[in-house]
Amino acid sequence: MSETTTVRKRSSVDSRERLLKAAGELFTERGYEKTTVRDIGQRADVDPTMIARYFGGKAQLYLAALRRDTAPLSDPPADLSSADGVLGLLERVGARGSTPTLYAAVRPHENAELQSAAMELLLSRMVGPSEQKARAAGYSDAQLRAEIVTAALAGIVMSRTSNAFDTLGSATSAEVAPLVSELLGGLLR
Amino acid sequence: MSETTTVRKRSSVDSRERLLKAAGELFTERGYEKTTVRDIGQRADVDPTMIARYFGGKAQLYLAALRRDTAPLSDPPADLSSADGVLGLLERVGARGSTPTLYAAVRPHENAELQSAAMELLLSRMVGPSEQKARAAGYSDAQLRAEIVTAALAGIVMSRTSNAFDTLGSATSAEVAPLVSELLGGLLR
DNA sequence: CGGCGTAGTCTACAGCTGTAGACATCACTT
DNA sequence: AAGTGATGTCTACAGCTGTAGACTACGCCG
Description:
mainly alpha; 2 domains; 189 residues; disordered N terminus; homodimer; 10 helices; DNA-binding
């Protein structure tokens, strides 16, 4: 039949995708520890035990969600000293949930393997570019500057997604970006 | 006997103190979720069930440790735009573990009550002073600036205690402080 | 000495977590 | 039409968590 063409109950790639999406959201909202596979399964409308089957376990799903959601972090790599660069980054980060990567990197080992994987992503996508910029500006402590800038940005992004600061949390990306780029740019030029 | 004078097995204030100390350390090292009352009891060399008895439960112990460890955050309140102010803050934070407060504030609700308590501390001790400074400098968006500065500093402090960034993590407070104050000061003057 | 309140110990339990493993259902090929 | 492999469902379990509750040891006061 052409009507029910290739419609299984569901395709495995679809289930995988739903799990990845739900996992990314929940890990962003609650963090790794407080998110249970049952939560993820429920939101994805997929049986939780599929997580073990498809990804190998909760930790592997987390890594997969990390990789999936980290792409917009710097794609293209952001220029953190320009308001436009920061604005683009903030909006990409807001659209998809890239905060798990930041949490994993910044937090003392939620899980050692997960942390190092997250750091690898963060290093190549944020610290590296900033370091080049600082080096181009003639600083000998370029790496330290780049790491400080990255850490500061991580703090700001995380604070925005948490509901901690009311002004910062409710301000739009467009309002925040100029100030953030002014802040970060101070160390890069 | 004068030898075993007022030495009970132990005094209750002593046990309380040991629990608070161990809790502060462990919450700093591992975060709230991953720290178990059994861990705390073992490090404090006090029975874990005493936590429930003395403090009411794990959450209350966390709050107590928070209050205890947050004092050095700004005591005296730090001038974040001066290298000395930042240096003093970094050293006080390093000496005792004030990072749980930052985590609690920045993270999406590890626990709603805990988060709001941590935020209250952070607001009065860091955002407030920075906001005054920004207002004195004539900015109309003083609160937003203060919150950005606080969030950035939180990210830097957390990154230093995690082992995420190798350069930032191994740099001394004296090396980091000038750069951080340069970074933060840009938004406050 | 005999009781009493404080401090500490130990056991137990109900709840939750991640996941293995047995079973069921479907689409498609031969 | 029957088989076959992929996909989804359900149950069960071992481990850990926070904590209540019963019990024990200790120092002090009369």
